[in-house]
Input
Amino acid sequence: MDFRGFNNEDFDVFQIDGLETRMEALKERIRPKLESLGLHFAPTLTTLTGDEQFVHVAKHARRTINPPKDTWVAFANNPRGYKMLPHFQIGLWQTHLFIWFAVIYEAPQKQEFAARLTKKINKIYKETPKDFVWSLDHTKPESVPHGQLSKEDLRGMFERLEKVKKAEILCGYEIKRDEVLNLNNEDFLQQVENVFNKVAPLYKIALNIK
Output
């Protein structure tokens, strides 16, 4: 594969002022790497989920003023889009890299997904690694480690997903910028694959795949 790892200049793209200038740098520096990761991991995720996974690199097309503070490649079982479906992501903020399973607010079947997650809460709470993290908003870099949550905290997140129109839920793993820079390619790709192995069951639960 053509992926050669992320470097300081990739993370520094998010410090560039102005929408057009930052978008130009994103397209030139980061997008080709995300496309490579997409091609590499789509077959892995297809095998893990039993659903063919299609690659979607973020275009940030709706932006007219504010430059993006993060960017990503997403994987979903629809070639036309991913935001309306449970999906997977690999992406960057200035401070860290993230690997997610995600259900975001555009998903019209959020209530059904949330109900299925709640039904399997014991399994999810027990099997999610303590150093994995949960997020309730994909537009913000903050997250909460699974090890700090009680089962009732997690239940509250799932109930919020079911009842609140704009609610979201993401689960996965974050790698700090310095750690990403110190990982060789093989170790990095293995770490991403390990995370996908751990979050793939959430996808299957959300979509009721046996």
Summary: The radius of gyration is 17 Å. The chain has one domain: 8-206.
